[in-house]
Specification:
This protein is an all-alpha fold. The chain has 3 domains: about 1-110, Tetratricopeptide repeat domain (Serine Threonine Protein Phosphatase 5, Tetratricopeptide repeat), CATH 1.25.40; about 115-230, no CATH class; about 320-410, Serine Threonine Protein Phosphatase 5, Tetratricopeptide repeat. The chain has 21 helices and no strands. Helix 3 packs antiparallel against helix 4, helix 8 (about 135-150) crosses helix 9 and helix 16 packs antiparallel against helix 17. About 30% of the residues are buried. Belongs to the PRP39 family. One of its GO terms (molecular function) is pre-mRNA 5'-splice site binding. One of its GO terms (biological process) is mRNA 5'-splice site recognition. It is found in: Nucleus.
């Protein structure tokens, strides 16, 4: 088989996965993996497989692109962040001698998932990286920021931080005022204040660390029951076919409701994105996230980015799912008062995605009626749709359009 001529677009995701398992040739496997990951960027195992093939072939830019594309789809996927960090340490820092690139990736990871309950592994690896570079002030800031982020491995974190402070406190007293790592500009003032509060006394500062740890433990304890109720944490193509996992979505929603009730909206946003990893194929889950981002965060631009992504990467192969994405987008823009944008989406649905489809015809007419659009818009649309239905010999649509065009004439 000539792998360069493979056309995989007609295969379902399950067919792609089944065929990829049987392939021994990496060139052919790469083609299948490209298609799988393009459709399901949350599929961590396949993201890792594809990046490994490109790395083995020495194509490091494409390997990096696999990680960045997956994280662009959902930057809360901590499993992919961990794999990407390890990959960069091996290929950028050790293999490529590009420590700034690795530093950049660590910073991106801590910014996106530093507050994730399971983020300690990334924080710890960040410490190891800076130890190799002998940046003690930065290490101090990493430990302190991780502590304030309330990661779940709090005891291990405090144990390591305490040992680090005990060994290097005298030097850290000078570094905290003389060095200003740009990447920790928001965290450094708080750490500096705690050094000043301790009056540069090590025992007093360690007491402050323990005080912060107690606060973090209280927050962790509050969330442990919720975290313990979540079994679906990673993506699998069969997740939505598993009734137990589908039912578990209520556990995610209860967790989110707790954070919203306490006005922890950024934590709630993180939970929505985490939920969209195992439930990547669930359009209702995406809609809930969009509603939250719009209603609680007021982040309309983020909502538009999500709709743009869903339009370009439909989460389902069936026609109704694709139409639901576009109709939801049109309804969203209507709620924002962007009637021209909403109208363009309705026209795209009717003219390109689903001509003569009664459901979307009705949706457009209702849209124009809701916004008190020009009656001529509706009439022209109905007549144009009727002409298309007749040409397509779509008898059912033609009858529906004839009746509704007549009704519209009589009503007006």
């Amino acid at each position: 088989m000539d792998s360069l001529n493979l056309n995989l677009s007609g295969l379902s995701i399950n067919e792609l996965i089944a065929k990829e398992k049987d392939l021994d040739d990496d060139t052919q496997r790469q083609k299948y993996l490209d298609e799988i990951v393009a459709r399901k960027p949350m599929y961590t195992d396949y993201v890792e497989k594809l990046a490994k093939i490109y790395t083995t072939n020495g194509d490091f830019d494409k390997a990096r692109g696999v990680f960045t594309a997956a994280l662009a789809a959902n930057d809360a996927n901590i499993d992919i962040w961990e794999i990407y960090v390890y990959w960069s340490l091996e290929n950028d820092y050790i293999g490529g001698k590009d420590e700034e690139k690795t530093k950049e990736i660590f910073e991106a990871a801590r910014t996106r998932v530093g507050s994730h309950p399971q983020a300690w592994g990334i924080w710890k690896k960040y410490v190891d990286f800076e130890l190799l570079r002998d940046n003690k002030n930065t290490i101090n800031l990493i430990y302190y920021t991780a502590l304030c982020s309330q990661v779940f491995a709090i005891d291990e974190l405090v144990s390591e931080y305490t040992k680090f402070i005990d060994e290097h406190f005298d030097k850290l007293k000078d570094l905290i005022t003389s060095e200003n790592p740009a990447e920790f500009k928001d965290e450094k003032p708080n750490l500096l204040n705690h050094f000043l509060e301790s009056n540069n006394d090590k025992a007093t500062f360690l007491n402050i660390v323990n005080r912060l740890a107690d606060k973090a433990r209280a927050e962790v304890d509050k969330r442990l029951p919720f975290e313990g109720s979540l079994r679906a944490l990673s993506y699998d193509v069969g997740n939505l076919a598993n009734e137990q996992l589908v039912g578990e979505m209520d556990n995610w929603k209860n967790y989110i409701d707790m954070e919203k009730a306490e006005a922890n909206y950024q934590k709630a946003a993180m939970l929505y994105k985490r939920m969209l990893i195992p439930y990547f194929d669930s359009l209702p889950a995406w809609k809930e996230y969009i509603e939250f981002a719009s209603g609680y965060l007021g982040d309309v631009d983020r909502c538009r980015e999500v709709f743009k992504y869903l339009r370009a990467h439909p989460i389902g192969d069936d026609k109704d799912t694709v139409l639901d994405i576009y109709l939801s987008n049109a309804h969203f823009e209507e709620r924002q008062g962007q009637f021209k944008v909403a109208r363009r989406l309705h026209k795209l649905i009717n003219n390109v995605l689903a001509p003569n489809y009664i459901k979307v015809i009705s949706e457009y007419v209702k849209f124009e009626q809701r916004i008190n659009g020009p009656r001529k818009n509706i009439l022209d649309f109905l007549e144009d749709s009727l002409e298309k239905a007749i040409k397509a010999e779509d008898e059912y649509a033609a009858i529906f359009l004839t009746v509704n065009t007549c009704r519209f004439y009589f009503a007006t």
